[in-house]
């Protein structure tokens, strides 16, 4: 690749803009204004939340779905529904969004980090087995960037030790493991419809399950302890108000319909980009298990070995070339605020706090760069620009 880096006055690889996200479509605007005009803004008065819950359950191959205001509270409710509480341990990967571990902290439990495999970016079943103690209650696999975890191995470990499995499927709408969509492969799956997600209403979340008793408990937890068919002031338990609004659900119904066509664009572009990146030395897209029958394609992680220790310079140089790219997550096991909260919950339970070393996470967080799902909605030329820009920056790495 010839030419000076754009950061040093050369011509950028790309000057065209990237697709906007979220996409302002007429159908969503119409759906929202119809809800406004109807006066039924609240799920109890309207039909959109219930309709979307049915549609999303079906979409994820699950029997039941309950929506929530966001994915973080969906995870919190999932943990409460399976009875995770003070002093319990919950195994989570350290390479994920902080909410995965925060939800465990909220319920008074202790997130225990089991490392990921840096080649796939996903929770390593062997690390999970090694992290199990007498206090362990649940495992939370995260289907990072929409890539399903090895659910065969994780469910086997869980069943061997009598543990529950909560899938953090916040990034994995429509993702499939051996023909079955994620979320209800384990006990409960938590989804997010936050602004950047492939299906979004700005904010939003959902829980799916195939277990009717858990679905009833989730309904109650999310509806101030009410029970289905019970009275308005009949509270069978102490719950929360985690109800989604009719406005959110009306947008989500439209977004769910628009999803399939958008997803096929992401899939086509991700396949092309993977091929292009594979041809560059020292560059690797995350591996995807061959048992995955549909990838959620929420974002795209690429490991650039030479970026280790120089990540911000790579990010800046690529941005100058017209390729905005993120630096990905710092390992959660390195975050002081989380460590303080975990230490508090651990000591409250009368146990000793042990910081965890997670070399797989350290490796990936040092060299992974992350494209957004909306960049995968661009055209084929854009994928070629991404690969060309990475190649160019690598060729000039001594000048960074
Ligand atoms: C893996 C993961 N878990 C949980 C969440 C939390 O979802 P929300 O932002 O809707 O609270 C997100 C997204 O933000 C996420 O990416």
- Specify Rg, calculated over alpha carbons: 22 Å
**How are the strands of the biggest sheet laid out side by side?**
1-11-10-7-6-2-3
Helix content: 25-40%
Uncertain residue segments: none
Number of strands: 15
Task: List the keywords.
38% helix; 400 residues; 3-stranded antiparallel sheet; binds pyridoxal-5'-phosphate; alpha/beta
Structure description:
The chain is an alpha/beta fold and 400 residues long. It is 38% helix and 14% strand. It contains twelve helices and 15 strands. The protein has helices spanning 26-38, 48-59, 71-81, 99-106, 125-131, 151-161, 212-222, 246-278, 311-320, 336-348, 359-367, 380-395, and strands at residues 64-68, 89-92, 110-113, 116-117, 122-123, 136-139, 164-168, 176-177, 180-181, 188-192, 205-209, 283-285, 292-294, 300-304, 368-371. The chain has a seven-stranded mixed beta sheet, sandwiched between helices. A three-stranded antiparallel beta sheet has the order 9-8-13, with no helix packed on it. The two termini are 16 Å apart. The relative contact order is 0.18. The structure holds pyridoxal-5'-phosphate. Pyridoxal-5'-phosphate binds next to helix 3 and helix 4.
């Amino acid at each position: 690749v010839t030419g000076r880096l754009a950061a040093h006055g050369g011509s950028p690889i790309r000057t065209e803009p990237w697709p906007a996200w979220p996409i302002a479509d007429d159908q969503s605007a119409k759906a929202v204004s119809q809800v406004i005009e109807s006066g039924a803004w609240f799920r109890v008065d309207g039909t959109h939340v219930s309709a979307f819950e049915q549609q999303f359950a079906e979409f994820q191959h699950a029997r039941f779905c309950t929506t929530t205001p966001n994915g973080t509270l969906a995870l919190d409710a999932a943990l409460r529904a399976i009875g995770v509480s003070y002093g319990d341990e919950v195994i989570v990967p350290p390479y994920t969004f902080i909410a995965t571990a925060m939800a465990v902290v909220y319920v008074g439990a202790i997130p225990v980090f089991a490392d990921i495999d840096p080649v796939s970016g996903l929770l390593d079943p062997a690390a999970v087995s090694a992290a199990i103690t007498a206090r362990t209650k649940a495992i939370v696999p995260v289907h990072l960037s929409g890539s399903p975890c090895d659910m065969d191995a994780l469910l086997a470990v869980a069943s061997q030790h009598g543990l529950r499995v909560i899938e953090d499927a916040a990034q994995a709408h429509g993702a499939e493991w051996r023909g079955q969509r994620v979320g209800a492969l384990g006990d409960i799956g938590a989804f997010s419809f936050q602004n950047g997600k492939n299906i979004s209403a700005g904010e939003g979340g959902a829980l799916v399950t195939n277990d009717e008793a858990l679905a009833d408990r989730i309904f109650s937890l999310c509806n101030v302890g009410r029970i289905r068919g019970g009275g308005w002031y009949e509270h069978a338990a102490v719950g929360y108000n985690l109800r989604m609004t009719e406005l959110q659900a009306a947008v989500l119904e439209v977004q769910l319909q628009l999803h399939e066509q958008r997803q096929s664009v992401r899939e086509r572009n991700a396949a092309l980009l993977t091929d292009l990146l594979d041809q560059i030395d020292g560059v690797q897209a995350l591996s995807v298990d061959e048992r995955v029958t549909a990838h959620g394609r929420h974002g795209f992680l690429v490991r650039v070995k030479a970026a280790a220790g120089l990540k911000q310079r790579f990010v800046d140089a690529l941005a100058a070339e017209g390729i905005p790219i993120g630096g990905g997550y710092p390992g959660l096991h390195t975050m002081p605020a989380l460590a303080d909260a975990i230490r508090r919950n651990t000591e409250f339970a009368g146990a000793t706090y042990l910081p965890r070393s997670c070399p797989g996470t350290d490796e990936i967080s040092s060299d992974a760069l992350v494209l957004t799902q909306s960049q995968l909605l661009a055209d084929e030329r854009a994928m070629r620009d991404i690969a060309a820009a990475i190649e160019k920056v690598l060729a000039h790495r001594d000048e960074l």
